[in-house]
Amino acid sequence: MFLSRLKKHLGLSEDQLKRLGAFLLLALTLVGTQGLASLLARSLFLANAGADKLPLLYTLTPICIIIISGFFSQVIGRFSHKRLLQLLLLGSALFMSGLRILGWLDYGLYILFIFYIFSEVVSVLVIKIGFWNLVADYFTTLELKRYTSYLNLASSLGYLLANTIAGIALQVIEPSVLVIALPGLYGLAIAEMVYIEIDQNDIEVNELQQQPQKHVETLKDSLRQFPQLISRYPILLFLTANTFLLLLVRLLGEYQYSAIYADSLDNAQQLASFLALMAALLSLLEFGLSSLVTPWLIQKMGVRRMNLIYPLTTLASFVGLFLAPGLGSAVFTNINQRSLNYGMAEAVRLLNYNAVPPRILGRFRVLSEGLFSPIGQVLGGLILLSAQHLGSLTTTTLLGMGLSVIHSGVGYFTGRSYLDSLMTMVTEGLVNLDGVKTGWVTLPSSYQEEVKNMLTSGDLQTQLLGLQLATRLPNPSQVLPEVKTLFSHTHPELRQGVVTFLSQIPSQDQHFCTRNLLDSTDQLARAIALELLILCQEPVPEPERSQFWAMGDAEIRALITLAELQTSKTSLPTNLEAWALELPSHSQQNLIHIIARSCNPDLLILLEPLIRHAPLEIQQQGLRYLTTLECHNTPQIRELVASQLGHSDPQMRATAIEILGKAPEENLFPYLAQALMDCHPHVREQAALALAHAGEKALHWVESYLESPHSEVVDAAISTLGYMGTPRAEDRLYEYLAPELHQFSRSWEWLQQLPADRPQWKLLAIAIDDYQKRVLERVFHSLSTLGCSATLDALKQVIHSHNLRDRANAVETIASLRYRRFVQPLLPFLETWASGQSLEQEINADAQWMKTQGYKLILECLASQDRWLELGAMVALVDIPRTLIKTPDPLVQDVAKTLFPAGGLICHQNPTLQRIYILTRVNLFRYFCLDELLLINQELIEEHFAPQEAIVAEGSLRHHLYILTSGTAQIVKSVGGRQKILATLSSGDYFGEAQLFNQNPAWVDVIAETDCTLLKLESDRFLDLVYQKPDMILEICKRFSAFLKQSLEETEVTLESPVLS
Hints:
Protein name: Cyclic nucleotide-binding domain-containing protein
Structural class: mainly alpha
Radius of gyration: 38 Å
Distance between the termini: 95 Å
GO molecular function, one term: transmembrane transporter activity
CATH architecture of the largest domain: Up-down Bundle
Largest sheet: 4 strands, antiparallel
Number of helices: 50
Domain Cyclic nucleotide-binding: 924-1026
Number of strands: 8
Low-confidence stretches: 205-217, 1053-1061
Helix content: 55-70%
Shape: globular
Transmembrane segments: 20-44, 56-77, 84-103, 109-135, 147-170, 176-196, 233-252, 272-297, 309-332
CATH class of the largest domain: Mainly Alpha
GO cellular component, one term: phycobilisome
């Protein structure tokens, strides 16, 4: 029941629900197990060692955690997170087994110290580090934002269940006996991890995904810069002091109530049972506080005042211990230290971090968690050791009271600096106001002048921010005069901001302002008043209603209609199409936002004609705006969005698919699958994401598109399977790629068998190389969708890097991916490619070679079902009669010459193949596969030029890229009345690309030296190709750089000549 509701609430697919459910169960098991281990270790220690040993324990524990965590941080990046966590759990199970089965607990005080410290260390390694690293391996950042609260809830539930069950069991079982349950629970957690590993695929992460850093900041670096950070952001000092003092008072309080518990209860069994039941009750209270009380208090009081609550309750707990030391005071202190700390103070501490600039937040956390927190724990233990020598608990209590008073003062200044820092970051644009609005209830009146200045600044974004901040002032009406200056602005966002502000001011001021706006002669002011009435769901006053309607303004009439529809005083317009068409575009935009923001079902029906008849830009804005609303998943909105799937604009189609894909319904699967064939790549990508979100229910809708003759459709289907990420989807993807991977391995062997010196085999060599690149691109695209996006970077590194070590490292990274079956057939090719070795071999293509290898190679290529391999093999067939037919018979020779003309290569006789062959030799097109070159060839126009005929004249405007296919041409520049030849072009060279970017007249002549044949490409199509393959820019830059270098060298030679000197 819970999971089904969770699925509906979060809009999860079946596969996402299974993954989240598995991790919820794992979180419950791990936290429950560690909670039980900590409970047993604590109760056994208190019962047998006594509270007197707690200060020493508190001192040793953080030191051990620092040392072991430091070692663990060095190895965690080198091993699989799954294996590391499983080994930790296995080691814990063996240790717990030894405690009970081998009787280690009978060995005395030292074992009790080891047991307690071991349980605390394992809690840190397993829960705080191991589990959350494992979660990050299986969930994206966006998913973590959505699911973290549920994982925390499962953790709290595990802690509650473990302590409740332990409290009941310890009524009849001794703590030392219950230890035997821990190995079984650790084993259960290992089994759950094995299930996750089998059933779910993790998100592949490897070193190439991380941007290289020239300098990794250490703890020492952060500490050295800390004084400078404090001078700029004083809140850091108060947050540091808050962290430090919190740990001190927590240890003092924990020592106090632990000592009272140990003195009040007779034996280990009673103590353990009491601690377990207390832990269960405290967990329940913590859950109630964190889910019900704390959010309400933060909303009412704000973070600034909430910073005082926990220090004051801590002070009250120490006062209680001083005035009435006993079990009741100890219980209250325990409630404060556990429930109030984790259920209330922790949420406030997290919100305090909103006031730390994002660029230094990581640095500050390194100091806070890595230095100040452990030092605070060690210092707390040392203080307890010192206080222990001074006598009674009263000394510790007085010390706790003093530290609590200081803590309260720090809390007060933290609240003040929180607001100052937050305002600075918001006004500087470092953070978005919506991102930090939680806990920010009101602004002090001292900020009123600053808000007024923002409203009158003249900058749109500053004015919008001023409107948002104005609603948080104690009396927003104080800035009404400044807001009124914005009434005449026509910008839609500013107009919406004004209406939102007016809707949130006190009702008396709101009615007064509405009346003034209605009485205004300004049409825009009246429109704002009507929008305000619609937002507040109030009717239009009758005198104004008739007066405004009679004026005939389309927008005013439309607003009156909306207000009356909302208050059920009228019916829908009889002709919605005509009603939408008569509105000007800016009115359509405003009405779309007003209706969508209202989320009123009676008004939502008007959105469809408004969006359909609005200009395209407004349509896109309107549809995008719907995704930000709480009502975006209502039937009316989904029906409206679904109607845009056939829109002529690709951006509209993509946005519609994106909205529907958040919670895809089965009746939409055919339409989403059909979008995989869309002509626009962004639409195909959104369709892939939407179908993947639906999970394996959409799998059979995707499979048929794997057989599409269009490669872009196949790639979209591959993306869908990869994004699904389930074992079944991965298997289906591999099943599709397996034949190509097998043929790739064979093509590797073919390439090593080709005679490099025979022109008849050149096209087959080009076809094999093209086939390998296409398979590589498809496999790497598949791996990228499966979560290995770094493999694309690795491939680029292999292609472009000249450093052999870098290339080798990239191939090694590819080889280490978990999807090894996908990359295994590619490795021989990639390793040779990375090493820089040439595959060309000296092949003696005689009759014997043709019989044993050549003919077999041709037959395999003819059976490959790849058009270019087949064409290359057909061209290579020309070599067979020349090699095999050695007869002197004149008749046989005559027939052979007729069938296979001497020197008559098929690729030279066929114009299409000849052009493709030439394009493969043009460096500018080396990033395109043969299929893409075939499409480019269809748009090329052939022209012929006689010797000395001008192809391009200096000063002319040409809008084509030229490719020379035969003959030679010269680039000539007139200098001082003389013609200077800058370059000579031959077959395969190109020119004219620079003009296509700057649209300037040609600065040189291009003249045919011999009979020339050229192919020209329209500028628009050329720019489309550049957009499709940005690497073309790199090639153009290389060519320009080489030309510039040559020109400079020639200039230097000219300047040094004796004639000029």
